Amino acid sequence: MRLNTKLLHPGKSALTLCAGAAVTLGLLSAPAIAHGAGATPQSLVSTEAVAGQSAAATAKTGPNVQWDWTMPTNIVDEFGWDFPNQQLAGPPDGLPDDVMSEYTTYQGASYRPGEYGQYGKIPTDGLHKVVLDGSGSTGEGTLACAWKIYSNPVVKAKANCADKTTVHLPEGTHKLQLKVTDKKGTTKIKSKIKVKNVLIALLGDSYAVGVGFPPYRVDGITGPNSTIAFDDPGCARTRWGGFVRAAQAAESADPRSNVTFINVGCGGAQVAGTSPNGGGVLTPQNTGTGIRPAQIDQLDAIVGPNKIDVALVGIGGNDTGFGGISATCVGALAGADLCYNADNGGDELWDWTNKRLEKLTTRYDEMAACLTSGAGTCQTSKSVGDPKTDSTRLNINDPAKVIQSGYPSLITRAKKAGETGNGSEPWVYCAWKPTPAQPMGADTYGQAPAMPWDAYWALNSAYLGEPGDQYVPPGSPDPAAEVGPLTAKGLTQLIKRNGSLYGYTVALDIFTESLQHGACATAPGMEFWVNGISTGLAGAPQDGAQYGGGLLHPSEAGQQAYADGQTPQTLDQAGIPVKTFADKTKPGKVRTVRLAPKGHSKSKGELRVTWKKPKNTGGGTINKYRVRISKAGDRDNFNSWKQTKQKKRWFKGLDKTEPYWVQIQAKSSVGWGERKTKKASTKLWNTK
Question: Of 284, 388, 463, 580, which sits most exposed with the smallest number of CB within 10 A?
Fold first, then answer.
């Protein structure tokens, strides 16, 4: 009796494999497909790829294919920065190596030259660079790579596989075909690549642009005469700020995507203001180097209709009046014990602050209309003093992609050993008062801008206040002092409100974590995240330059805390999956599947199934198989898997008048591999 092995496709051997191949984390694997050359287990991958393969027989005569692709890095971090010597040196440190570039113009929209705040470009044709790399392939002699990407239009490229090939593709997922040819033959693989450029925009004030940790440029001069090398001096932007570090982290996380970064934040900015110096997000701002348009209008001119993937927003501190609060309280230290009752523009400080928070509530609502749909009509002022008129809402398709950060606490620190008092908090309010024996800035307690009673009031009203609350500091030296009830939420509470009301992603780690890292913090492991009076005037510890603008702004540790708090949300909202690149792939399909009646008897409805292990074991050891069967008329309804360590199995009680489908899957130490399906026709039992 002769067994007919041509069960499914007449004219094709039972050795022929159907199309299909395994994919793991963007890793292309098949008998002729392996992971990208040079990839390590520590590499990060952002894309999903679905690979297919041609007939396995091709792999026997053609080359072994290994290929990869990347997108050029726009925010480069190849080296660390040596601050004392003001040069790049050492391993990457999470800080961009290059100064932000000048803004580029988008499709004819005008923008003033000489302003710097950009990494990468927004292509006017919508096409992004993608580098294809087949250099990991091996075979006989010189290897030729022929690439074909099914974008619109189709892109083709031919090159020696030893050379990387650059193509320009639109964003999105595109089918890809690669043919690698050597002396013995050709191997063809099919897959998909996902082109992803992440457009990140930054709006905000001095905390957002990095003031407090200015990049001093020594140039042979140290101390107070050093020149501050801001990327954009007019707005005090620096590439070493915490928000920029979060964008750098997104860039560094994934070689198969890249980031375009647009920074329109500016020191001194408010959500809105009426004076030339009081502008910001919704109104023009005089920066000392000219009046800049509202940040919303700047972004519209630069970005145009392009979708913003993430908007990093840090605004509201100046609207709240942090500068006025600090100035009033520092001035009060000269001879008064309290500052929250001090006169500030005709109002007591507590009332002045409360009124500013009321205005900020309205301003946040106006800002939301320019960031999210359904929040009203976006309006900005086009010139200083002009009323707001209709403007273009930024193209942000999901309000969760607006990440609004809070502000660090200026006036608390961790308790030291043996300290008690100031309630049950694990931190205390900063306290300091100058004396002839202890002049201003002479000790670490001199870092704070307020006395403990003022600090209590400021934290609980300006940061955490709720309408109706009345924060009269306990133990105040002036029991007659009155602080009226609040009529507005504090800044931190308003940011929480924006998250609930408008759907923003809220990043408040910088506030909650900073309660033990205020300007007067000195405990080991609890160093200050905010430059106080003494540390601010002394300058950054890296070179000792003095910069008064750094007072009460984040130190190096504070900038990194900002980055640490924002990076997870940035990666999540940018759609960059941080997954470990796997050197090992799942097993391929089993081979040489044979079907025969058990015992070669056609009288019983029994089926014997045998196979060979996959050619591609996924880098692991095949230790188990599983098999299941289904009537061909109900192909999607297989019975339960049956597991075995052998490369054979039989089934009983089958209906000889019905065809059946058998499915087999191999398992290695990496995981279950691809499924191999084969049909057992009714002719099987009629074999003579």
Answer: 580
